Amino acid sequence: MILVTIDTNSADFVPLQRLPLIQRNPVGQPRYYWNEARPDLRYASITSILSATQSEATKQALRRWKAKILAEGGDPDETRDQAAKRGAAIHDWFEQFLLRQSPEIPEAIAPWCENIIKAPLWKHLDHVVCTEHQVCSDEGIVPFAGTLDALVKLNGQFCLMDLKTKAPGKAKPTRQISNEAMCQMQAYRLCLAENYGIKVDRFIALYAFPDQAAYPVAAAGAELSKHESHWTQRITAYSLQNP
Questions:
Q1: DSSP 8-state code for residue 143
Q2: pTM beyond cutoff 0.70
Q3: Cα angle: 128, vertex 158, 236; to 5 degrees
Q4: What does the pLDDT look like over 211-236, one tens digit per residue?
Q5: Measured distance CA(28)–CA(26) in Å, rounded
Q6: Residue 149 CA, distance from chain mean position
Q7: 214, 206 in Cβ contact below 8 A?
Q8: How far apart are CA 159 and CA 122, in angstroms?
């Protein structure tokens, strides 16, 4: 069901109406969303769906990472929590940056932010439609919802952006890793079409590093069909896990 229709050809954009979604983070359980307009439904979190349907290769990579941290005398949980805290701070700054609020750059995250600012893609930015925006879908086999990082217009096209932050010394993402980000954005793409009638033309996953240039991975055109199929496989697998 389309909740709001906007003139996608107009240069004058009206901010998207916020949906009546509430994020729930129960202790020890997957995140989900509650929709005040559809209180009879429980919306699975997009990130929880992706986590629950990881490939065996992704699970093995995670096990290798944990083993490496332990071998170095570290704590995987502590390392993950520190990365999440840093990522949240960078995302908060990134939102203000996109909205041209000239945010100050905290010293702890300055290397990441400075490399984001230097990314060449900003010269193609026409308009920021929304940031940190909750969307949902309840027309498929499983109701789902999530919070997208940003929807922008680049060179006249609607483009979903997802910011990924990486630790020092990390390599650029493999195709396997970036495909997860694309799958996530495909879920948002379906929601935007369902909620607002917006047709997204392009995805960009922007990987931010402290010690190398920000690295964008993009998808458009026929590539989007591949990511649409990937999301369909994941949501179907999730529905079988949660009948």
A1: -
A2: yes
A3: 115
A4: 999 999 999 999 999 999 999 999 99
A5: 6
A6: 6
A7: yes
A8: 12
